[in-house]
Design brief:
There is one protein chain. Helices cover 70% and strands 0% of the residues. The chain is built from 4 helices and no strands. Helix 3 packs antiparallel against helix 4. The protein is flat, with a radius of gyration of 22 Å.
Length: 129
């Protein structure tokens, strides 16, 4: 993660320098805003990688003596059957169509997206009692 953090720090630095130079010479608010957002996104990724490196240290693939078996085992838990992802996708399609056809369809799509997202988030929450 250290290499990735350094790489994205370079990208963030490039966007910062470009943003400052562009803001001074062009005085275009749209381009300046786009470069500022690009800098912030690159800096967010840099922060994520640097924080993970500080917490966990080097990964096996970062070390020269790393072995394949150090990364073996279960990756994570993935639910076998869930209505959340297709519901979220259908709601997103309705949201996009709602932008074209009207607020009523956008609001329906928003409700479907929220139902899908909340379904995925709370699918495996166990109740107390």
């Amino acid at each position: 993660m250290k290499t990735e953090a350094i790489l994205f720090a370079g990208v963030a630095g490039f966007f910062l320098v470009t943003d400052v130079l562009y803001a001074v010479w062009s005085r275009d608010p749209a381009g300046t805003a786009a470069l500022t957002v690009s800098f912030l996104m690159a800096w967010l990724v840099t922060f994520f990688f640097a924080t993970n490196y500080r917490r966990k240290g080097l990964r096996p693939e970062d070390r020269r003596d790393g072995q394949i078996h150090e990364r073996s085992g279960p990756v994570d838990f993935f639910p076998p059957h869930s209505i959340g992802p297709p519901l979220t996708a259908a709601g997103t399609a309705l949201l996009v169509l709602g932008v074209v056809f009207g607020l009523w369809l956008f609001l329906i799509g928003l409700g479907v997206v929220l139902a899908g997202v909340f379904g995925m988030v709370f699918q495996y929450v166990r109740t107390q009692g």
